[in-house]
Structures are given as structure tokens and as C-alpha cells.
Amino acid sequence: MSLRAKLLLVALSILALPWAGWRFVREMEGLLRQGQEQALLASAEAMARGIAVRPGALPAVGPGWFAHGLDYAPRLDGRADDWQGAADGPTGFGEGGWLRASVARAGGQVFLLLDVDDASRQRGEAHWPGDLEFDRLRLRLRTNNGEYLLRLANGEAGPLKVAGEDGLPPPFRVEGWWRERAGGYTVELALPQDLGLRALGVEARDLDAAGRRRLAGSLEAVQGAQLIQAWPLHGYVGALEPVLQALTPPGMRARLADRQAWVLARAGAIAADPSEDDLLPWRRGLYRALLFRDVDETAADRADARGIAREEVAQAIAGTAAVAWRRDPYGARLLLSAAVPVRVDGQVRAALLLERSNSEVLLLTDQAFSDLLGVSLLAFGISGGALLWYASRLAGRIRRLRDAAEKALDREGRVTPFPRARARDEIGDLSRSFAGLLDQVAGYTDYLRSLSGKLSHELGTPLAIVRTSLDNLDSAGLPAEAQPYLGRARDGVERMGKLVRTMSEVTRIEHAIAVAEPEDFDLRALLADCAEAYRGLLAPRELWVDLPEGPLPFRGAPELIVQALDKLVDNARGFCPEDGWVRLTLAREGGGARVSLANAGPLLPEAMRTRLFDSLVSLREKPRGSEGAPHLGFGLYVVRLVAELHRGHAEARNLPDATGVEFTLHLDLI
Question: Which PANTHER family does the entry mention (predicted)?
Fold first, then answer.
């Protein structure tokens, strides 16, 4: 990764700021929720105490029947499809609830729906003697005119047959219908308007084929016998609604339920969701997905539902206050409900459910989130921009330092001035360290460049002394066995002398290059004259010359160019076989010229192509020359110096057909 990318990656740590802010928003939203829960519980408990001071309208302690109010009287056909939802939660009796009873009121009449599961049909008639065993129903009615026991039994489906306990018709007319169904039967009946029913008891007697009997209903064991108990009736209390409305805070909905969770009264309504207009849809979706993840249940019951199937209501009926959160199925808000028991003389008579929305919390959360988002974006933009600017500046300084380091040594190995940064940071220290190091390298390089001249000057006198001493030893008449050693010493001195002369020549050439004065001449004519002189030197090798047709005016140092050609020709002569060829080429190149000398022979090692023009570098494997002196590799070094004097460079390459090598001088006017 680049430095800029790394700094940008570090800049991502700024994202911890919005993350921490988001955690704060969530914590704040949680605290606001807790505050709403406590406030709603307090309001519900205050309302429950206000209702408890008027206990007359509340259901009595103990079991009872909830008589649902119907908008119109149902048709007596043994079916519950026209009970307008009043039969959806019947009261069950017996093991598994094989007897189910529902009570409703419409037009002053009381309607009763009894559903019995009976897999074994043992039917009879209501007027049969009571000591006969058959499937039947019994009702205990407590009215304003007294108490009645009724027997209900049909031998087959049809109009309901009703009789008293003595088998005679009852003192009032009871209309109804007996409907047989798969696995049981259903009885639907209506009691007269003027009966004044205050309490109702029900019993179902089921007889199977083996003669076993089972009972279910509102029974109570008295002295070993199961007796029908008449439970009082209660229902929706309209008189409670003004009281409940007065106690309900604005924007909330209150419902009072009996111990079976049937609604006794309702008042108020949950305020509309203001966030629908104030929040954008994507924000509502965001809050719903992120803030309300801990709330899974959706509020699905209707405001006018007859019953309340809520866990918190069940807890309140059991005597414990409870709260619950639910999602609003039509918006982004949450709905909070608090259920508290309504106690009278220490006994739970009903449960109060108070509901509200958390739209205010949602709007406060949105405001906090908007502020957090704005501050985070501003902080991230400023910090990210500052880091990006700093990374760009730092990367630029490092790139300049890299470029300066790459250019510190030119192609010829010379050290160029290295910029010294004034900055007091680590990069400035690094640039100054590089500059100091390169100054030492430049000094050492200059020392190496002048080493040959110093050695040739310093070694001249010692070699003369050694040569004179050897001459004196030879004239002193040494024994014959010492003569070979004397000859070897003389050969060594001669070789060292040639080395000293070669280094002196290089020093002289370097000095000549340094003080060379340019002049105008015809480069083509110069190379043509040199080529004629080289033919005899290169024989029997074949020399090919490729020169331009016309003159090639040039401004430079002709004697130095000739010395460079001498070195190239000597190099070609040393590597080209006697049956080989040498080719001299001259061509114009921009404002200057290109001089090439190619020869047949071995190819250049790829790793040595860029080092051939350095001092003291040679590829010759054995001594050459009449005196057997080793080759020091100064020839191509002189070629490079001449090319640089003419503001050009020298290069070497293998020929494309791999038949030899080619050395090229790129020369420009000086």
C-alpha cells in the first residue's frame, strides 16, 4: 500500500466517532424509553385508582359471564358466523374444553351459543324423564322473577326442545336450534326480553356407548355432588366511558378489561404519527431497522376488538403491572402499552391497558442523529482532508527524495549534487544523511579517479631503482643458477613499467580532455583517413567502412576522437578472429553524429554491458602485447570520457544476428 493509502486507512479510525455517537444515540433512546415506561405506568396506576373508587360498574369477584353486545340479533341456526366476533373467545369447560359457551346481548335479549364435542351420539328428548341417561344440556337461570332450571335435548337436528326439570314446558318461551355436526353438536338459543336474567349456569352431560358419563360446565362440588353454579353476567359498560375518557391523558388509548380479558370500556385514541410528515422514508426505515431491532412483535389488534390477547394484560389480571413495546404496523414508531390491575378491597376486579406511541422519542432521536451525522461528516471531512493533504505533501517529499537518490549517480558513475532539505523532521534528517553519504562517495570516487596518476608518478622512482639494481647485479657476475631468477625479476619490472606508462597515459588523456579546445572539422574526412590507417593494422581481417556521401561538419576535439577510435579498434583487434570482419559506420544523429564500430567475435555478457566503460574493467582472459603486460581495461574508459566531453555517451551491444558486438559513440557539438 502507498503511504497515502495507509494514512487514509488510519483516517478511517475517525469512524469511531460516529460509532460512539450512534451508541450514545441508542443509549439515549433506551433511557427515553425507560422514562416513557415509568411515566405510562404511573399514569395507568393513577387511572386504575380513579376507577377503583367507583366499583359498582366493575365485574364482581369470582367467575362470571361476559355478555357481548351485538349490533343486531343473530339468526338461530346453530352457527356462529353472524355473532359478529362475539363467539371467537368462548369460555371452555371440561378436559380439553369439550364444552364451549358464549353469551351475547342484542335488543334486550340474551343469546347463548353452546358447542359440545361428542364423538358418541346418545341423543334424547328434553321432555323425557330425568332419570334416563342421554346427551343433554342444563341451564340454571337466575332472574328478577326467581331461579329456573332448564333441560335442553334433541333427538335430531332441528328447533331446540326445552323443558323444565320435571319434563314440562318452562313458564316462558325459549327459542333455539339444535345442529348436529361432525364430532359433536351446537345449540344456539335466545331468552325472552322481559326475563331479567342476572346470572347463568350451564352444564353438559355426555354419555358414550359404554354407558360412561362425563360432566362439564359451571359446576361446583357440594357434598360430593356436582351442582350447577349461576355466574353473574356483565358486559360492555358504557357508563364507564366518560370516567375513563376524563382520566385518559391526551394522545393515549385506554381500555378496561375483565378477568377474562374482555373489553369493558374504552376511551381515547393514540395520537397520529407526526414523524410521517417530519421524517424522510429512508430515515424511518433506518430507525426501524437499527433502533427497534429488539422489538419483534407487531401491534396487530384493532382498537375496537372485543378482547385483548396481550401478555401484559394477562400479567395485570394475575396482579402484576407490566409494560410491553410493539411495532406500529403502519409507521416507523413504536407503541408502548402498560397494563395494571384494578384492585378493590385488595382484590383484582379488572385490568387497565393504557397505550401510547413513542413519536416524541423518535423525533428527538432523529434530531440527535441528524446533529451527530452533521458533526461526524464535518469532522470526517476536515480530518480526512487534512490527512489527505498531509499524506500528499509527505508522499511528494518522499518522491522528490527518491528521484534525487535515483539521480545521485549518473550513467558514468559520477556523483551529482544531492539536495539538502531544511525541514527538521525525519525526512529532512534523511535527506541530509543521504547528502553527507554521497559527499563521502564523491570524495572517494574522485580519489579513485586520480589514483592511477598518483600511482604512475609515485611508482616511477622505485621502479627505476629496482631496474638499476638489477643491472648492477647482472654486471656483478652472479652464479649461473641465479640467472633465471634475475631474468624473472627483470621481466616483472618491465611489466610494472608498462603498467605505470599506461596509467600515465590515461592521466595524460584525462588532463587533455579537461583542457581540450573545440575546433571545426569534417568528421567524415577524419574517419576516412583513420580507416585507411586501420586497414593495415587489422589485416588479415576485413574492414568495412560506411560513411555519408558528403562532408559532415562537426565541432569538437578531433585528436581525442581519434584516440577513442584507436581504443575501439584495438579492442576489436583483440577479440575479432583473423578471418573475421570489422565495420566502421558514421551517421548523422540530431545535431551531432553517431560513430559505430562493430566486429565479429564473442558476445558480451549481459551483466557486463553497462560496466565495460568503467575504469579497470576488462573481459580479456590472458595477457596481450609484445611484453605480456596484463590488460587494465583503461581503453573503453577513455572512450567514455571522450564521449562525455562531446556531451554524449558510449554504449555497447550484441548484434541482433549474434555474430559479434558493436560499440557506439553518440557525439554532440561542443
Answer: SENSOR HISTIDINE KINASE TRCS, SENSOR HISTIDINE KINASE YKOH
Distances (CA, A) of 150 to 78, 96, 110, 127, 230: 18, 25, 15, 11, 13
- Structural domains for the chain: 3-58+238-366 (3.30.450.20), 65-228 (2.60.40.1190), 417-514 (1.10.287), 516-667 (3.30.565.10)
C-alpha to C-alpha distance for 415 and 409, rounded to whole angstroms: 5
> What is the model's pTM?
0.56
Task: For residue 291, give the nearest of 554, 39, 33 by alpha carbon.
Answer: 33
pLDDT in tens, 138-194: 999 999 889 999 999 999 999 999 999 889 999 999 999 999 999 999 999 999 988
- Distance (Å, whole) CA 332 – CA 330: 7
For the chain, give percent helix, strand, coil, nearest 5: 40, 25, 35
pLDDT lower than 70: segments of the chain: 1-4, 6-7, 11, 17, 22, 273-297, 330-332, 359-366, 368-369, 372, 411-413, 449, 451-457, 609-610, 615-633
Give dist(CA 394, CA 427) in Å, integer: 9
Read off the DSSP letter of residue 631. P
How many other C-beta atoms can be found within 10 angstroms of the C-beta atom of residue 654? 16
Residue at grid coordinates 621481466: 491
What is the gyration radius of the CA atoms in the chain, in angstroms? Answer: 59
236-255: pLDDT as tens digits: 888 888 889 999 999 899 99
Asked if residues 311 and 322 have their Cβ atoms less than 8 Å apart, the reply is: yes
Place of cell 363467539: 87
